[in-house]
């Protein structure tokens, strides 16, 4: 039986944060004053957690952070994940293994990661102007590193290659059309993400969010878009340009929530299960391992936790309570 929550949603996607350290200080994420708070686990512990969850129906793995490429041994970890098989009638099929990175260290690692079994990569990049990029990330000269990483990933065949841009009013909303041009010129899928209240500074307000309808209207000033059908569990609404060259997506959790078809759970870098990005509590899977639980006992614990998965988030509502961790300490 597949792993499902009490609302009947099948859990097929696992996001594992392998560190909450990051070499960037993006204004929508970090204050720049806090570093890692929770630490990392040995890769063999993440591997065991993943193996148990794959046996319960998980088919997609995404490695996140912090910045996952800061972890020494990440290539070998991907190789170990690639040895796991999703059970089926034919004896098993490979996992879909993806990684989200800020791209700063990707140029040298793209080909080794692909050779190890990484399927695809998503690069976070919030401006296509070097000066604006430095203002947002608070890292000088980072733009050239990220661009080199994107191009190396494309050459390595990490595909589809997605570039995520968090839009924040007053910082980068004027980058919408330049990103449309970038998608066409670089052959990548650009995905715009509505700014969510997950930053360390807790400065979020509805006025800072650049919403889906505004993004579409601005991009239409450049070229018409045609919507592409997407699976119900996909986070992004997808569009291609009218001439078929270039694709963009919009992840709109604020204006167009997709909670009803959520298929994801997360494991934090210190081994806690989070059933929703906006959970106000964690569930300590690693503690169960430390006390000597068998794989069967871990699976029973996971089943119990998944039944507590939230029906939806409450962003912008009067009763909204911020998540107990910020994004960098949860994992994207």
Set down the secondary structure blueprint.
Layout: E1 13-17, H1 43-54, E2 60-64, H2 74-81, E3 85-86, E4 93-94, E5 96-101, H3 106-116, E6 120-124, H4 130-137, H5 142-156, E7 162-167, H6 176-186, E8 189-194, H7 212-220, E9 225-228, E10 236-241, E11 247-251, E12 264-267, E13 272-274, E14 283-284, H8 285-290, H9 295-306
Parallel strand pairs: 1-2, 1-12, 2-5, 5-6, 6-7, 7-8, 8-11
Antiparallel strand pairs: 3-4, 9-10, 10-11, 12-13, 13-14
How would you describe this structure in keywords?
9 helices, twelve-stranded mixed beta sheet, TIM Barrel, 332 residues, alpha/beta
Quote the CATH topology: TIM Barrel
Distance between the termini: 28 Å
H and E order? EHEHEEEHEHHEHEHEEEEEEHH
Provide mean pLDDT, rounded. 95
- CATH C-level class is Alpha Beta
Strand order of the largest sheet: 9-10-11-8-7-6-5-2-1-12-13-14
Number of helices: 9
CA radius of gyration is: 19 Å
**Overall domain count:** 1
Name given to the CATH homologous superfamily: Aldolase class I
Gross CATH architecture? Alpha-Beta Barrel
- Uncertain segments: none
Q: Can you count the beta strands?
A: 14
């Amino acid at each position: 039986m597949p792993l499902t929550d009490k609302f009947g949603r099948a859990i097929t996607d696992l996001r594992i944060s392998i560190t909450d350290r990051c070499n960037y200080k993006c204004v929508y994420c970090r204050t720049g004053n806090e570093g890692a708070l929770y630490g990392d686990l040995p890769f063999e512990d993440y591997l065991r957690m993943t193996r148990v969850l794959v046996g319960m129906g998980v088919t997609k793995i995404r490695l996140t952070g912090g910045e996952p490429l800061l972890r020494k041994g990440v290539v070998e970890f991907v190789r170990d994940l690639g040895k796991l098989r999703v059970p089926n009638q034919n004896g098993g099929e490979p996992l879909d293994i993806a990684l989200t990175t800020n791209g700063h260290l990707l140029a040298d690692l793209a080909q080794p990661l692909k050779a190890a079994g990484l399927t695809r990569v998503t690069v976070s990049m919030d401006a296509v102007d070097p000066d604006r990029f430095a203002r947002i990330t608070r890292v000088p000269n980072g733009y050239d590193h990220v661009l080199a990483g994107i191009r190396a990933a494309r050459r390595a065949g990490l595909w589809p290659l997605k570039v995520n841009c968090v839009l924040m009013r007053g910082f980068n909303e004027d980058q919408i059309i330049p990103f449309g041009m970038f998608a066409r010129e670089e052959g990548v899928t650009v995905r715009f993400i509505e700014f969510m209240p997950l930053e360390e500074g807790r400065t979020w307000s509805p006025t800072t969010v650049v919403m889906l309808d505004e993004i579409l209207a601005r991009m239409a000033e450049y070229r018409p878009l045609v919507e592409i059908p997407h699976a119900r569990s996909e986070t992004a609404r997808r569009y291609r340009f009218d001439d078929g060259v270039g694709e963009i997506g919009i992840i709109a959790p604020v204006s167009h929530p997709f909670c009803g078809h959520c298929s994801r759970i997360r494991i934090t870098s210190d081994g806690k299960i989070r059933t929703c990005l906006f959970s106000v509590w964690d569930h300590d899977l690693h503690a169960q391992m430390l006390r000597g639980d068998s794989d069967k006992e871990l699976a029973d614990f996971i089943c119990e936790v998944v039944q507590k998965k939230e029906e939806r988030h409450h962003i912008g509502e009067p009763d909204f309570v911020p998540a107990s961790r910020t994004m960098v300490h949860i994992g994207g």
